């Protein structure tokens, strides 16, 4: 199997490293990036990665392509690779704000969107998926099968994708920020260093995650730890209302950013006329 990747920043490099380490037979990767130095570092970690100079070369040398660039950069990339695409190509974009069906109007390929997470480096976590009309059942199964080696594919709709991505893709960073703030507050008491506090919290978080894996729910944890009139109950009385406000503000901020960076219908260029659109024959990935 040969997989193409256009853009090897945070998301692209994570997908390449996760797939190369988790698949029974690591695939060959063909990739390009604006910074040759960055992709060279990645190539040293992933021996099966072949570096090429342009996005067009990636499209010519692979049929399944991860396009891991931000929404504003997607149009120029599509312009570069469109002459080399066929109905047998599968394009998987990671830009959450770009609509799959809109992109299908510009290329003859099958198109899907995936929103991965850093948790895929550990071989777990959700991978949000959204497939365009040209993706038939076999194509969807093929992509889901590939992704299932590094996480759990989860289909979402346009109106779900922002909130779901906050929980799955952004979630690890939010959890990490909460852990760091917790550690800083502990250090501010003057009774423990920030490094020691963060280490204790990591140990506690890892063990709590194992409880969840064994079927214990967050509500179970609260009930078992917090006793009436106890210290934990006093802490939760402060945390609960503050956390509700914090996360309402967080979702409002991410939604506002999502909408402000989403391409408007007028930004979609060079649509295929319905009468001239290439055929939709499909083959295996």
Automatic annotation (TrEMBL):
Residues 268-279 have a biased composition (Basic and acidic residues). Residues 2-91 form the Pyrroline-5-carboxylate reductase catalytic N-terminal domain. It comes from the Bacteria. GO terms for biological process: L-proline biosynthetic process. Residues 159-255 form the Pyrroline-5-carboxylate reductase dimerisation domain. Residues 258-285 are annotated as: Disordered. GO terms for molecular function: pyrroline-5-carboxylate reductase activity. PROSITE patterns: P5CR. PANTHER family: COME OPERON PROTEIN 4 (PTHR11645:SF51), PYRROLINE-5-CARBOXYLATE REDUCTASE (PTHR11645). Belongs to the pyrroline-5-carboxylate reductase family. This is Pyrroline-5-carboxylate reductase.
């Amino acid at each position: 199997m040969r997989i193409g990747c256009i853009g090897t920043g945070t998301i692209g490099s994570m997908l390449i490293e996760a797939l190369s380490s988790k698949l029974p037979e690591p695939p060959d990767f063909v990739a390009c990036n604006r910074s040759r130095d960055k992709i060279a570092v990645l190539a040293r970690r992933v021996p099966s990665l072949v570096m090429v100079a342009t996005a067009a070369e990636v499209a010519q040398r692979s049929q399944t392509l991860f396009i891991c660039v931000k929404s504003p950069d997607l149009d120029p990339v599509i312009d570069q690779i469109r002459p080399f695409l066929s109905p047998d190509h599968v394009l998987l974009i990671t830009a959450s704000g770009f609509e799959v069906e809109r992109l299908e109007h510009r290329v003859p390929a099958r198109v899907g969107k995936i929103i991965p997470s850093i948790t895929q480096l550990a071989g777990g976590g959700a991978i949000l998926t959204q497939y365009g009309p040209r993706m038939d059942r076999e194509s969807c199964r093929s992509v889901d099968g590939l992704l299932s080696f590094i996480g759990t594919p989860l289909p979402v709709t346009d109106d779900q994708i922002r909130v779901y991505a906050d929980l799955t893709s952004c979630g690890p960073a939010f959890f990490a920020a909460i852990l760091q703030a917790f550690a800083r507050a502990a250090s501010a008491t003057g009774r423990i260093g920030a490094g020691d506090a963060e280490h204790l919290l990591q140990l506690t978080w890892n063990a709590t995650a194992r409880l969840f894996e064994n079927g214990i729910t967050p509500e179970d944890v609260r009930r078992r730890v917090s006793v009436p009139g106890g210290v934990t109950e006093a802490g939760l009385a402060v945390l609960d209302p503050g956390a509700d406000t914090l996360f309402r503000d967080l979702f409002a901020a991410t939604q506002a950013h999502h909408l402000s960076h989403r391409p408007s219908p007028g930004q979609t260029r060079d649509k295929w006329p319905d009468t001239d659109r290439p055929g939709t024959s499909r083959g295996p990935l």
